[in-house]
Please model this.
Amino acid sequence: MYDLVVIGAGPGGYEAAQKAAKLGMKTAVIENREVGGTCLNRGCVPAKALLHAAELYRGSRNSERFGIVSKEVTCNYEKVSSYKEESSKTLRQGIEQLLKTNKVDLIQGTGTIPGSGKVRVQTDNKTEDIQTDKILIATGSKPSSLPIPGMDLPGIMTSDEMFRMGQIPEKLVIIGGGVIGVEFATVYSSFGTEVTILEAEKSILPGMDSDISKNLKMILKKQGVDIHTNTFVQKVEKKDQNFLCSFLKKSKRGDKSGDVETPYLLLATGRIPNTDKLFEEGISLEMESGRILVSPDFETSLPGVYAIGDVTGGTMLAHVASAQGISAVEQMNKKEPSLDLSVIPSCVYTDPEIACVGITEKEAKAQGIDAITGKALTHSNCKSVITKEERGFAKIVVDRKTEGIIGAQMMCARATDMIGEMGTAIANHLTVKQLMKAMRAHPTYNELIGEALEMTEDRIA
Model:
């Protein structure tokens, strides 16, 4: 008999399990694939490994601007893939050790729910029922598709298949200009692939600050990526060994049809909650558009059954799932949640990096907030000049009335590391003056934050 059984050993599941064990709950985690979930094995980690290798390759080829002459730089993609796999393997082993150290039982198998208080585990050899006081669903998400003719043709890839590619494609068409699409575009354009992005929205990264979208589009185009926005894929057909992707591009000057032929086609249109075969016959939870609905303490409509992360919809990020898992377990134990779940950083690992937290100036004004911004450009930042970074910026959004930080958007080197300071500021309702009390080392990229803060202080005054 367990106090808690977690279904899914991704970031949400394993963090929740460890927290539960530390709070004295007898805990088990059920996983039918590798520990670490999508993030560690088919998402964040392998993507960032590829991006790092691509950055090194691109940097080596362009090193002459720093006085370093490389006569011949080649890419051994087999070794790049091995490095990617080794990164995931090392982290998987770390998670397995952490679960063992915290005395969390890791059960390999497929978990299903026949009702409250019980989880059925199917392995290759047997089926076993496990009794538990509480159940936490952390089954994550899976790549989504589009209701377009031909989208079910064999060979069309999602991110899962893309990570298993054994060679660098000569040509790649990506349907979708969101985070997944632009990161893969960054990787393969760096390795010399002819990349085309087809995006239905008015801009790539449509949910982010417009300055970010515009800047990234210019940078990717400079790297040779062909970007089509306001473009709707109509159908996909097989043409010999290639795919023929037909689309309709909309503009104020009129709609225009077109097509592009490619041997490799990546569908990167987001992800959907994964509830496949999760519930036994006769068991159903309250759901909406495929996602499990939960209360503020993450309990579902079935008593004693909780759900967190991608399977509940919302913001599908690994760190959100982890935070929700910890919060759910804390509330199961009648403890005050230790994390502010409303302050969510978003990161994109292009070059330069992109990171955002809080709200934009446009969103603030839509909410009736008298917002002001300070924007510091990288061309005036000493470290950025030294390292010859691409055009970028750090923007901070402030509530004029309270002088508190309510948002930040960055597009610069190390943005994904620096955004943490801004998240801390927003979660703790810090003001511009409070953030400016600490001096920032010189020369650092972090000085961009100080410059942006100074600009907001001048405007407040």
